[in-house]
Amino acid sequence: MAQKKNAVIVGGGTSKFGVRAATIFDMLQEAANALSKDIPGLKPKDVDGLIFASTTAGRNSNSLNTAPIVAHRLGIYPTSICVRVDTLCSGSNTAIILATGLIESGISDCILVCGTEKLNMPQRWESVYMNLITNDHDWDSAMGLAVPPPFFTMIAQHHMKKYGTTKEQMGAVSVTNYAYGFNNPNAQFGGKSLNLDEYLVARTVCEPFGLNDCCPVTDGASAVIVASEERAKAMTDRPLVYIRGTGQTSTHGMSAHWPADTLADWPHLKHAGEIAYKAAGLTPKDIDVAQTHDCFTISEIIEVEELGFCKKGEGGEFCASGGIKVDGQTPVNTDGGLLAIGHPYGATGARQAVEICKQLQGRALNQVKDAKFGLTHNLSGVCAQHTVVIYGTEPR
């Protein structure tokens, strides 16, 4: 029996995130160009696989079976895998899990994982109402449950009632992530600062959320290379970043199947984290830096609880006391996160992987000192699915 190979992230890049006139193919080429600059030793002929993540590519690019067209536009000729995946907000994080399995099994040796979304067309309002088809259409969507802000405000209200989380604690998440994103040239809100007073008087979106509690509607693309340890060493002299463990759990995407007594508790995220920690041979205390799915401020508060960075119910206090800052216990969303960078669904997981790769190689913009282990997390749909990937500077 052949020995299992180690899978590593070699490097990556992103396009500019924001409201773009560019097509998905334009943005993918931008991301791939940034990736090629990040890995000068990478040649197109090195890439034997492509996993492309996008939910709206068929709708907004007028291109079905998009993966071969992406391969054409990027000048690669996949021979082991060429496929598009759709798990909405966790698309490219899911793609990294699939790429890891293909690398470890020896089926592939070097896979380009990329993702993109074009959400500000054909008409911007469609991007919100498109979310009505992300869960059970017959039962939940008819009640408007899948539109993100109203659903996540119910989560926030449950958490505030059960655990005493405050508006100011949610504001601490937004202020911190805007500060992280300030010097990120590819962030939708790069160069924009936010203080707590400005946060508290921002226009109300849906009580208790103000404008800065919500991530923006964003276009963008990202790309990373997942390769075998041996192939990676031939491409780069940088420290290798190993994929140590993964986990993904899913409910049925229907409110009647919510796995807890209240929306304030996310046991399916906790379970996904436990699976990933066990596979990685690590515990939450080992994680030096994390990128979590801060689509709303309350999301990050619950995520630091369920991923074990603090006790359940203390996420608000943990964030407000500086636990998520670069010198805190567990720095979170150090490149600005979804709140400051934006969230083009299929691109977000790979964007997070780029940041963790840079953190563990010691070259991030907001560098965490001596970071050895990192974690990425995405949720999908009406919080129906959670995806976790854990990285390290050493193989397990």
Distance between the termini: 20 Å
Task: Evaluate the radius of gyration.
Answer: 19 Å
Structural class: alpha/beta
| Poorly predicted residue ranges | none
List the helices and strands in order: EHEHHEHEHHHHEEEHEHEHHHHEE
Count of alpha and pi helical runs: 14
* Mean pLDDT across every amino acid position: 95
Helix content: 25-40%
Got a strand count?
Answer: 11
Provide a concise account of the structure shown.
Helix content is 36%, strand content 17%. It is globular.
Could you list some keywords that capture this structure?
9-stranded mixed beta sheet; 396 residues; 36% helix; alpha/beta
Written account of the structure:
With 396 residues, the chain is of the alpha/beta class. Helices cover 36% and strands 17% of the residues. It has 14 helices and eleven strands. The protein has helices spanning 24-38, 57-60, 66-74, 91-105, 124-129, 148-163, 167-181, 196-200, 229-235, 267-280, 297-306, 315-320, 337-341, 345-361, and strands spanning 7-14, 49-53, 81-85, 110-117, 204-206, 209-210, 220-228, 241-250, 289-291, 373-380, 385-392. The strands form two sheets. A nine-stranded mixed sheet has the order 3-2-4-7-1-8-11-10-9, with helices on both faces. Strands 5-6 form a two-stranded antiparallel ribbon. β5 (204-206) and β6 form a beta hairpin. The longest helix has 17 residues, at 345-361. The chain starts with 6 loop residues before the first strand and ends with a strand.
